[in-house]
Amino acid sequence: xxxxxxxxxxxxxxxxxxxxxxxxxxxxxxxxxxxxxxxxxxxxxxxxxxxxxxxxxxxxxxxxxxxxxxxxxxxxxxxxxxxxxxxxxxxxxxxxxxxxxxxxxxxxxxxxxxxxxxxxxxxxxxxxxxxxxxxxxxxxxxxxxxxxxxxxxxxxxxxxxxxxxxxxxxxxxxxxxxxxxxxxxxxxxxxxxxxxxxxxxxxxxxxxxxxxxxxxxxxxxxxxxxxxxxxxxxxxxxxxxxxxxxxxxxxxxxxxxxxxxxxxxxxxxxxxxxxxxxxxxxxxxxxxxxxxxxxxxxxxxxxxxxxxxxxxxxxxxxxxxxxxxxxxxxxxxxxxxxxxxxxxxxxxxxxxxxxxxxxxxxxxxxxxxxxxxxxxxxxxxxxxxxxxxxxxxxxxxxxxxxxxxxxxxxxxxxxxxxxxxxxxxxxxxxxxxxxxxxxxxxxxxxxxxxxxxxxxxxxxxxxxxxxxxxxxxxxxxxxxxxxxxxxxxxxxxxxxxxxxxxx
Length: 503
What we know:
Layout: H1 2-11, E1 16-20, E2 23-26, H2 27-44, E3 51-55, H3 60-71, E4 75-78, H4 85-95, E5 99-102, H5 104-109, E6 119-122, E7 140-146, E8 154-159, H6 160-174, E9 181-184, H7 192-201, E10 206-209, H8 218-227, E11 232-236, H9 237-243, E12 256-260, H10 266-270, E13 277-282, E14 292-295, E15 309-310, E16 314-319, E17 332-338, E18 344-345, H11 349-355, E19 356-358, E20 367-377, E21 383-388, E22 393-395, E23 398-400, H12 402-410, E24 415-424, E25 430-438, H13 446-457, E26 480-487
Helix pairs in contact: 2-3
């Protein structure tokens, strides 16, 4: 990724690279800041291919750290600075990074909880950029953690080759140029963050950081997009669908809105009134973010938009349980081949061998990723998403394994069993509901619910989903609610089929 950026530095050194809170960093200035990070890592003796964690607020320092880590031949491991410190520390314990680059807030909240052998570097390094003379090209670009069905998250190792293919596919699909202004909306711990960085910095375009207050309110977001003259934005499906409800703004420079992360309702496309084109993108982290694309139109049948056709450099296979291709119109499991297939899961060889398979249709050393997603090919060749083969769900763009949350709940001494199920609200948004069985003798009052819930919040990424705990008798607008508290009688288990629908 940094090689693509350096090509643009040579072409457009004085063009704006990053804009945040009214400040602008040119491509040349961003290069110098990235080189400082690379020099600081070199001074520590960072070995090639080592992991370097990033715990920083969104801005030019974070973007420069991503580039600097890669310049040093290391692999960046970005975290969401808003995530609980215990969560980040637990992931660092699993990832075993060589170093962590953090800002002042992370220094006070996170540093003390990291493994003792992790080097700490400030988000504004004091090393001179002239001290960095090298430019190492590592095999891997970054590592992103995804939710794990066994209760343990897993790190996906994404190759540089996948980033190169991504950049070419983005340019071809969206007609990108150095005059574009790309919004940076996604959390750094979500691979859409890398999608946005590549979209801007590989084309010489400007990356504009969306302020916190505009990330949760569709009206404020549209105001920002228009005011900042954004031309391309990638949004979680729920936010893209919310924009469809707003009246068009003639002064807006938007020309492409990309919905990603969940099923896009057909109603959003039918009601789309903005001048910008609406796209539906699909792809897992294990295939370098993005695999298919569909340009939405107002016509069409069904409740959801198709996920479209494979992007450049990507192959999609729909296979049955025996590994054979299915006929058009028949549902099969989506397998993804091509340049974007990840190397595997960090130190999880059994999971890697089960998910990353030899590609018999391409031959040679080609590999494909078994996604666990179901799809079918329509008469016009486009693909339609048909659900999952397991219990994994998508919530506001994030991939979630309920098993990870259930394992965190069961880790509390008062919990005998737990089940987490999704629920679709009237407005189309989703909510996760935790149903819990208390151990014999455990207090089942609201105070006990709150104690268990807040204990689990230290281990899961609760802040992303506005988690709160409400008493069992008062279920109002909380996005996360512990509502089904049951005492263990004959069997201390929760049966999904017998759980009553939350009020």
